[in-house]
Write a structure and sequence with these properties.
Blueprint (H helix, E strand, L loop, with lengths): L1 H27 L3 E3 L11 E8 L5 E7 L16 E7 L7 E8 L2 E10 L5 E8 L6 E8 L1 H19 L3 H19 L5 E6 L9 E3 L3 E9 L4 E6 L2 E2 L7 E7 L3 E11 L4 E10 L24 E7 L12 H14 L8 E5 L5 H8 L4 H5 L6 E7 L2 E4 L4 E4 L12 E2 H9 L5 E7 L32 E5 L9 E2 L4 E2 H13 L7 E3 H18 L7 E4 L4 E4 L2
Helix pairs in contact: 8-9
Length: 545
């Protein structure tokens, strides 16, 4: 403890010495006034160059012999000769203290005369041969007001440096007051929750939705600095009113509302909300909730596209729902990680955005690294054919079929084959006849056509499920709110297609199930729809628990 006090004392002394040293440096730099550019202190031979107030109070006058002008090569006076020096007022304490650079009557080109602090003027009698052969001249320099100027300047500096400025005093007083108020403020903010309302006799409230709005008011006499609702920063208006949207999990949810004022006082209230889920089974299809398996497809990448509402053509009914539910099956049933799945829907599924995912330089190209990767593509929407060019395409949201077929399937299959993936599985819930799921024509006054993909367009590692064959249209099931093909595809993925019950689903089994079920359903509706599988059929798609 003694050592600590000693160190503190030494530190304090050092800081004080340093501060005083800095002050003296400032003052010393202000002790001299330079008269170099002043014409008032010159004779024809000499110039009073500088006046300095020494620390002992003595005044030093620096005098120089004038140098030649730029056009003259000789001094203004051939010699610096001083006959006499007088100071005034001698009767009031003005006197000469000493000189430097003076040898008898001859002086150096730069010489010094020291006088007492009360000197007001100095008179020099000197020899001049500037314009004559030689004569004695007298020059008086009034230095008193300059000496006083230096004294006043130093006094002002000492006073200013040694005192705290008034504005800092005011700041210090304010700071002290604020610190005192902060120390004395022990009152935390007041939190009032106005919604949802919990009855006095209850300690919780029950809801049946997955989000709720928490409304309230927060007040503090010194001001609220921070407000959290459910752990998230929340803003309040100038009256303290706030509203925050909170997500709710199943069962009990403890929502904390926390407020902190500017002085660090914290208050907290807890709102207990119980989420009870009342589900009407009629609003869900029996395939909307996927079964969960223990599969982990870490090296599988998927692109899901669903376009129900188009910019230029009629809707592809339920395509939006088809895509969303299929994505859930990829995650829960096939075990593909969410970050490995890209999904674009409706107006987001433009020609450009689809190419960003499936194109030769797209997302798949950047992520599929080697032959151990697997690819799954799902498309629900409209297909279109070009009879003249014998090509088929997947219609993007912003494509007008009068002018383009959209994503050319031949180029798509080629780009995917070039990725050299282990397997590529494609599901197309689209027909290429130019008709909707309700058999409306995409192009007015056209007739249904189809182009059958050539097998040589498909690589050995590729399997393509299509919703229809030939000139058939791809239908929908209104009661299930799904496309007919996708509905039975999802049914098959749930295990209904595992024909031999070996807990493994092959592409062959899946195709057999889809083809049979879709054909039968369509036949009962007095129409034809026969899905088909092109390419490899042996791949095992799912292993069930």
């Amino acid at each position: 403890m003694k050592n600590f006090i000693l160190i503190t004392l030494i530190l304090s002394i050092c800081l004080k010495i340093n501060a005083e040293s800095n002050l003296e440096d400032i003052i010393n730099s202000s002790r001299t006034i330079d008269l170099t550019y002043s014409g008032s202190f010159s004779s024809d031979c000499h110039k009073l160059n500088k006046i300095k107030l020494e620390t002992n109070g003595i005044i030093t006058l620096e005098i120089i012999r004038l140098k030649p002008s730029y056009t003259s090569k000789v001094f203004t006076c051939s010699v610096s000769k001083i006959y006499d020096v007088e100071v005034y007022p001698s009767d009031k304490g003005a006197y000469i203290v000493g000189a430097k650079g003076v040898r008898g009557k001859i002086t150096d080109d730069r010489f010094y005369i020291q006088v007492s602090p009360k000197t007001e003027a100095i008179r020099i009698k000197y020899f001049s041969d500037k314009n004559t052969k030689g004569e004695v001249k007298i020059k008086r320099f009034d230095v008193g007001y300059i000496i006083n100027k230096i004294k006043n300047r130093i006094a002002d500096l000492r006073e200013s440096e040694s005192t705290i400025p008034s504005w800092q005093k005011a700041f210090k007083e304010t700071e002290t007051k604020l610190i005192s108020e902060a120390k004395n403020d022990k009152q935390p903010p007041n939190i009032l929750i106005t919604s949802p309302v919990v009855q006095p006799e209850e300690s919780f409230i029950e809801v049946d939705n997955y989000t709720t709005l928490v409304r309230g008011k927060v007040k503090d006499n010194k001001g609220v600095m921070k407000l959290l609702v459910g752990g998230n920063n929340t803003s309040a208006d100038e009256n303290g009113n706030f509203v925050a949207k909170v997500k709710l999990g199943f069962g009990e949810n403890k929502i904390k509302v926390q407020a902190e004022d500017v002085n660090g006082n914290i208050s907290e209230k807890t709102l207990i909300i119980i989420r009870k889920e009342f589900l009407n089974n009629n609003i869900f299809s029996d395939v909307d909730i996927p079964i969960k398996t223990s599969m982990k497809n870490k090296n599988t990448f998927a692109v899901v596209i669903g376009i129900e509402n188009y910019q230029y053509v009629p809707d592809a009914k339920y395509a939006y729902n088809d895509a969303q539910v299929f994505r859930e099956y990829l995650i829960e049933t096939l075990g593909i990680s969410k970050q490995n799945i890209k999904m674009i829907l409706n107006s987001k599924a433009t020609y450009a955005e689809i190419n960003k995912l499936l194109g030769s330089k797209g997302w798949l190209k950047r992520n599929v690294k080697d032959s151990t990767s697997n690819i799954i593509i799902y498309f629900a929407g409209h297909g279109i054919s070009n009879l003249e060019e014998k090509t088929t395409g997947l219609l993007a949201f912003d494509i007008d079929p009068n002018y383009s077929i959209g994503i050319d399937t031949k180029n798509l299959y080629k780009n995917l084959a070039n990725l050299n993936a282990n397997s590529i599985t494609i599901f197309l819930d689209a027909c290429f006849t130019g008709q909707t799921r309700e058999e409306k024509l995409l192009i007015a006054d056209s007739r249904p056509i189809t182009i059958v993909p050539k097998i040589n367009h498909i690589s050995d590692n590729m399997s393509i499920f299509t919703a229809t064959s030939n000139t058939q249209t791809s239908g929908a099931i209104k009661e299930q709110e799904h496309g007919l093909f996708t509905y039975f595809l999802l049914k098959g993925l749930r295990g209904n297609a595992d024909d031999n019950k070996d807990k493994k689903l092959t592409l062959f089994e899946l195709n057999s199930f889809i083809t049979k079920e879709v054909s039968n359903y369509a036949l009962n509706a007095e129409r034809e729809q026969t899905p088909q599988l092109l390419g490899s059929k042996d791949k095992i798609l799912i292993k069930y628990d």
